[in-house]
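A student in our group prepared the protein record below, which I am reviewing. Here is the record exactly as it was handed to me.
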Amino acid sequence: MNSKKKVLISGVSIAGPTLGFWLAKYGFEVTIVERSKSLRLGGQNLDVRRAGRAVVRMMGIEKEILAANTGELGLQFVNRNNEVEAEFPAEGNDSFTSEAEILRGDLVNILYDCTKNDVKYVFGKYITAIHQDSDKVEVTFSDNHSEWFHLLIAADGVRSTTRKIIFGNEPELKFVGLYNAWYTIPRIERDTQWARWYTAQGSRVMVLRPDNHGTIRASFSFLSDDEKFLSQSDSEQKKVLKDKLSGAGWEEDRLMKEIDDNNEVYFDGISQVKAPRWFDGRTGMIGDAAYCPTPLTGMGTTLAMVGAYLLAGELYRHDKHEDAFAAYEKRMRPFVEKVQKLPPGVPWLAHPKSKLGVTIVNKAAALLASRPVKMIGKLLSSKEKDVTKDDIELPVFE
């Protein structure tokens, strides 16, 4: 079924190579194009949860992912004196630190290594125009070269340029009122193997997380409804970050210095992608490009990998791409919509404005981390600890 059909995927991150893996396995001729000149190996922690674990297990890379674990012991809530207010060890399927906690770059490397012999990778190019008819999609690249494919799938992230070419402004980027900056900083003596979460008044949060490369992955987030920061230059955004960090306490000086010294500060407004449709003719999108749930859900990687597996399977199962796309959306959209529903009060409850609010957050964390509450939680939770169990069926397509 559908073997030797040519498929172009835009984006070498998580969804793109996963889709490429399964399409190549089912006999498709796959090309993945990436704007960067090489693999982009930066980024923060990802975790592969539940149905995502089932997918990587079927791909034969679960052991590699677990072996590349960041080594994080769990999460500690700390005060401005770096004293621990609450502690959540890395245990349980829904803990802050998962068993399959891995750096984005490490996961990208694993996916590339397991697909590079079966998928054609093209780096340093991107799509500038498409023209499709009933038989094919003609794609023009940034070097003015044109080539035709049977299908084109965008998997190039929440701010996908390929999505813009296909769908224009139809998909909505729903800003949730939260900005976040991520960057890698040198490890120092007071850092440990615990992730440390610090809440500062003024609706600000800092998180420092250890990695398995001898450095620390830092993030700084703050609440704001002002969307103008998104369109500012790098220097303007760094000024915003320093203004927002000022007076926060704890590791403020350390993070402030790194904003000036670090060339890889990633700053963005946290947004969800809401798209009324994921496909148009012979083109479509998956992963964050189609249905980014935000990092607040902890399910972005799982959505990307599950979506890639299911789309490849439906394309293999159906002779007509229209039928495959329809079957995929019927199966995937309810799962996406459930994941995208943020809990009440997110992200505002975790970013209190007042000193009293900070105290309440830390006290609430301490209560949740207390032994009696943990024991009650274990009694009420299911005895079944199936990391593959989720609210979506993963059929076997072969």
About this structure: Residues 377-389 have pLDDT under 50 and may be disordered.
